[in-house]
Amino acid sequence: MHPYNEKSSQTIQSVSEINLNIRKIIENRFNFVRIRGEISNVKQPISGHTYFNLKDEKSQLSAVLFKNQKRWLSQDLKDGQLVICDGRIGVYEPRGHYQLIIDTIDFDGTGHLQIRFEHLKQRLRTEGLFDTTIKKSLPQSVDKIVLITSPTGAAIHDFLSICRKKRADILIQILPVRVQGEGSSVEISRAIDTAHSLEPDVIVLCRGGGSIEDLWAFNEEALARSIYAASIPIVTGVGHETDFTIADFCSDIRAATPTAAAEILVPDRQLNAEKINTLLIRIKRCLAYYFDHYANRLDHANRVFSTFDHAFNRHTLTVDSLLSRLNNGLAISLERKHGLFSEAGSRLLRLSPEHRIELQQKQLKHIQDKLSQLMHHRLETKQSAFSKTTAVLDSLSPLATLARGYSIVSKKAVDSRTSGKIITSISQVVERDEVDIKLHHGQLSCEVISKKVS
């Protein structure tokens, strides 16, 4: 039978039909299974069902525990727990995806990663790496931050978004590292050493959330000791609010998320301006209160002593002198406060982004002008060199030699598409040979009549 006809005779199934057949085969074959594995990547959407992966050293299996079955659990499901699940294998036809549909769960342990985590945590706590008395405080003013994180993750976006939102006047230097996978912990430790050479006010370690496996780089002992040995305050913002790592316990400040780390470190310029304005209003009110208070006291003293002018003339003069000194003192104090306020305003103006942008624009204009001059000088130099080279080539050109009366003699070409061999000696021709003589203007065809050695 012809191959085309053979193929045409076969039954063609739709995707839905083949998925239905697969579901029937799998669900009939695995209608009850009992599986041991470690829980990973637990998710609970708004539906109330719980989705997670059940895995061992070599493989993993998707699993689902429906909402109505959760009431039989003796404890909540967490990443790293070692469990035994009873259920069946089902196929979700729309996606062609098979998964374990769980009926009951027996908790068989806490998982090897969780056990490693707890053992290391206890050992480092005993050594004193988590001691709160050795934690370094943040400086009053943070002007420079070194951010150690993945350059492509959501954490860096969240951190910088808060900085932009608050219009922070802070220098942020980013040291890109891998935050997951083999060797990532070593990269982070090296980045901490590099960060010290940059002399920031604070070092920030951050990454987004994930399972205990995803965050394991921050649970390595080497990284914990690098954080402990750091001389610059280190802030961690790793994972979600409920995630805790060994790095969090060793750091000087643990933020719940990368966003929370930015909120802690970056001041709000608008809020600071409002605080300054509030303090100025309070100062003015206090000064006004003292002015009124002392003015009332002076008025009262004047009224009391006005009837004793003759008896207390000298004292009245003293009071007037004191009043004058008080007014002068208050005037000087107000002038000094006004000067300090003006100086603070000028400093804020100098530190404003607009002022810095203007300075940078002037520097950029200077660099552009200098670059233009350099390019112009370079072009002139290259043009001069080109002219000299052209003159040398002209002097060495065969055409220039022909123009001085010389000629080029070659054997007659076989056809119009080839050229004859150049003749430099009489030994290359014999009598009656035809030759071509190229002149400066035109060409001659000649015949050799005789040869003569010069």
Verbal overview:
This protein has twelve helices and 13 strands. The strands form three sheets. It has a five-stranded mixed beta barrel with strand order 1-2-3-5-4. Strands 7-6-8-9-10 form a five-stranded parallel beta sheet. The chain has 454 residues and is α/β, with parallel strands linked by helices. It is 47% helix and 19% strand. The chain has four domains: 107 residues, Beta Barrel (OB fold (Dihydrolipoamide Acetyltransferase, E2P)); 153 residues, Response regulator (Rossmann fold, 3-Layer(aba) Sandwich), CATH 3.40.50.2300; 81 residues; 45 residues, no CATH class. 17% of the residues are buried. The protein starts with a helix and ends in a 7-residue tail after the last strand.
List keywords for this structure.
single chain, 454 residues, alpha/beta, OB fold (Dihydrolipoamide Acetyltransferase, E2P), Rossmann fold, 4 domains, five-stranded mixed β-barrel, five-stranded parallel sheet, 12 helices
